[in-house]
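FAQ: What does the model actually see?

It sees only this:
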Amino acid sequence: MTLTIRLAFFLALCWIPVFATGCSNGFVLMPDVSQLRSIHIQDNWMGISPISPTVVSYTLQNQGDYFGGQAFFDIRGLSTTQSITIPIEKVDSFLKTLATAPIEEGEYIPTFRYTDDYPDIRFHMRFISETVEFSTGSQGKDHSPWRVTVDDKMYISSSHIPMQSFAILEPYLARDLLNQMIDRRMRQPP
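And it is asked to produce this:
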C-alpha cells in the first residue's frame, strides 16, 4: 500500500462516527440539520448571589425552515417564558461548529477553581437516529472540559468550541429579557 492510501485509510477510520475505531482523538460526526428533531439547551447557574439559583432553559423543535419553541427563565423565583425562533441556517452553523470540538475517551472531571460558582450547561440534540449531548459543570469562560454523550457512549472534550458554537445561537435566545430579569432581581432585597 502506498503512503497516500494508508494515510487515507487511517483518516477514514478516525472519522467514523463517535470514533468507534478507538482513535486517540476524534470528532462527533453530527447528522445533517434536516435530521435534527429537537434541541434542549440548559444554561443554569448556582452560587452565593441574589440571582441564585438561575434556571435558563430552551426547548426547540424543528419546524422545517426554522427551530421554534420556548425560553424559560427563573431568577431566584422570578420566572417567565418567551417564544423564540432560530433560523435553520444558524442551527446548522451551531451543529457544524460543535462538530469540530475534538473528543477523546476519558473520565469527565469538571474544573473547579473557586467556590460559589456552579454552572450547569447542556446542549441536548435529538436526531432521527441518535441523541448527542454536550454538558458541563466546569467553571471558567469556556467551561472546559465537557462531557460528550452520543447515545450511551461518553467522551470528553477539553475545548472552547462548545461555547463558541453556543455564541452562534445567543442572539436568538431572548438574552435581553434574561438580563432585564437579572437586573430586576439584583435590585430587590433578598
